[in-house]
Design a protein that fits this description.
- The protein is of the alpha/beta class.
- The chain has one domain: Rossmann fold (3-Layer(aba) Sandwich).
- It contains eight helices and eleven strands.
- The strands form two sheets. It has a seven-stranded mixed β-sheet, with helices on both faces. Strands 6-7-8-9 form a four-stranded antiparallel β-sheet.
- A hairpin with a 4-residue loop joins β8 (178-183) and β9 (188-192).
- The longest helix is centred in the middle third of the chain and has 14 residues, at 73-86.
- The two termini are 33 Å apart.
- The structure holds S-adenosylmethionine.
- The site of S-adenosylmethionine has 21 residues, from α1 and β2.
């Protein structure tokens, strides 16, 4: 992905404030992904690793190396510094998750904090799922979480400016199933939400199988009130 891509310029502009942003929004995911990593018997890979917000606790808790892929040099710089500070082993690869390859098949590949939603089209996500299926050991797992679109949240949030944790405005473009996060100054990143059936279609075409679909990180059932999909899928043994 080119670094002048608007998505990448948002992360380049915000990488030093990213952890404050994430901490205000998402923390329950860390123990969930740590739990999956404890069960992984083989290489562990995080797609769109960012600053290592999840990969560092995973590496710390398991005492194992985590391989992280991300397209943003600024985010990877933060990850490198934080991993050194925490004394954990991360192998960081600058690259696009639609094209990643591994030297060895993985026991666990995971993609936290809705990062798959940065890919604009179903075909972009299909490329990731195909790379994942080709990169997993037999029986290996792929896990991710993503927004479950909620019209009430969209109605409440559309056009609203937030001061914290980083001044920004949220805009919903329902026709394009897109949410824009616009930093003061104009840098914009977008998330393209997907329905449950779109996710199930991606799993199907990649030849993977659903192990669990939760409505939250504590294993809550997915209901009409859920605002998050938490998926765990497997490659056949
Ligand atoms: C919301 S952050 C998630 C970071 C980290 N996984 C976490 O949970 O904190 C999204 C990350 O996705 C990365 N990203 C977006 N599109 C990407 C792509 N096509 N390939 C690799 N990384 C990508 C961004 O650079 C950014 O670091």
């Amino acid at each position: 992905m080119p670094y002048d891509d608007p998505l990448m310029s948002w992360y380049e502009a915000a990488s030093d404030r990213y952890d404050a942003w994430a901490a205000a929004d998402m923390t329950a995911d860390v123990p969930f992904y740590v739990g999956l990593a404890h069960e992984a018997d083989g290489p562990i890979v995080e797609l769109a690793v960012g600053t290592g917000r999840v990969a560092i606790p995973v590496a710390y808790a398991t005492g194992r190396r985590v391989i992280g892929v991300d397209a943003s040099p600024g985010m990877l710089r933060q990850a490198r510094a934080r991993a050194a500070e925490a004394g954990v082993d991360l192998t960081l690869i600058e690259g696009d998750m639609r094209e990643f390859t591994l030297d060895e098949p993985a026991a666990l590949i995971y993609c936290p904090y809705r990062a798959l939603l940065h890919l604009p089209t179903w075909a972009d996500r299909r490329r990731v799922f195909e790379r994942v299926a080709a990169s997993l050991q037999p029986g290996g797992r792929f896990a991710w979480n993503a927004i479950a679109f909620d019209h009430r949240v969209a109605a409440r949030e559309d056009g609203v400016r937030h001061e914290e944790p980083v001044p920004h405005t949220v805009r919903f473009a329902v026709g394009d199933n897109r949410i824009d996060l616009v930093l003061d100054g104009g840098a914009t990143t977008s998330l393209w939400w997907a329905t449950k059936n779109e996710w199930l279609g991606l799993i199907d075409v990649a030849g993977l199988h659903v192990e669990a679909l939760h409505g939250g990180f504590a294993g809550e059932p997915l209901t009409d009130e859920s605002t998050e999909y938490v998926f765990v899928v497997r490659r056949s043994p």
